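User: Second chain of the day. Same drill as before.
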Amino acid sequence: MHSYLTELGLPELLEHPERLALLTDEQLDNLADVRDEAADALESNPDDATNIDTVYIAHMTLTSALFLRALSADAQPQAIPPGAVLARSWKGSALRTVSADAVRDVLAPSTTIDVLTKAGLPATAEPEITFDDAPVRLSSVIEIPEDDEDASADFFAAYWRIGTTSLGDALCIDERADGVVVLLDCEWGFYAQQFVNTSVGHLLLCLEAWRALESDTSDDVDGIIERFASAVERVDPAALTEGAFWSDMLDALEDDEEDEEG
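Assistant: Same format as last time:
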């Protein structure tokens, strides 16, 4: 394994969330560099076990650290109105509620349960998300490797999938993190996690901000992007921390705009 990972205390560091959350920007940048260098080396020698381990451990450490940073963000999110009120303000495609029985076993704040049962989620929404009819335990809908079945089943049981992306990534409610919405990357066996929103209610508000962005027909593209960023910042500041889902979406918008201008 790369000497820098050993210097950071990996892989043992992955078992200490409090230490992961304290990794500096420089350390995270170095982790990304190590991962990318090892990934490049794999192109010429795809069976190199050392580089495979380096890529995996570096990526897991990086994504876990960024997720924990988002969880510990100081800025407070907007208070979510009752589900019935949230439903009336929604302007996207029809929302679908679930029964109280369908979320009986979900360990999440009462505000999350209220949003799911009184407001609901759409069948689909941009950016390219398909929502489940009701939350489902991730452990019951993904294939778990037999050599790690017990540990993985226990790990994934804390996630309730509420939707999937076009790439097959799982959008989940995380019971271990007080009901935050997290995206689990299928390419990494659903272990790599990305912060999406503080709650399902905040997700709905950010989806509405994205819908407004896409429906804006003005010629001021910079203004459209700025209004979207401001809306997300107002609703859920943690959603714009480095590595978070909506932060990545915003970066992609700005990159596209720069490409068009160039």
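The first helix runs from residue 3 to 8.

User: Great, on to the next one.
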